[in-house]
What we know:
The structure is a single chain. This protein is α/β, with parallel strands linked by helices and 153 residues long. 22% of the residues lie in helices and 29% in strands. Strands 1-4-3-2 form a four-stranded mixed beta sheet, with helices on one face. Strand 2 (49-52) and strand 3 (57-60) form a beta hairpin. It is globular and about 60 Å long.
Amino acid sequence: MDGALRAAWAPDVGKTGAMPLVDHLGITVEDLPRAVAQFDPVLTALGMERTDGDNAVAWYAEDETELILFPAREAGTRPHRHGTVGWQHLAFAVGSRAEVDRLHATALAAGWSAVREPKTYPRFNERYYASFVEDDNGIRVEFMHNPPKPQTD
Length: 153
């Protein structure tokens, strides 16, 4: 989308204090209490605050996308399988490699499974450092640090 079109379509996107482009992300889970036990340590470590609703649990941080967990409408609909149509993964950008490592460890301690341990991904660029974890529902999350390329004068 070119700059003029973006300015007309979403004039406040990218401005401080503006709504995020993606307002919220809802995820359906098989066992809501178990999913909360897995997501809460990770999302609170990312600085998000938790709100428990009647039939959902949400996490939010100022100027960020809200993440909401909902219980499945039908029990036994099985976990999502990575690679099938639908959800692929959600990536959280963090400020350092140490933060990637810390969040990866936090997720593992909360019962997530390691898909890929923290490492550099040179296929993207030499600065891209990330890890991947998956919860009991097959929800895959990436913690990534990709600092800007250093400026050369």
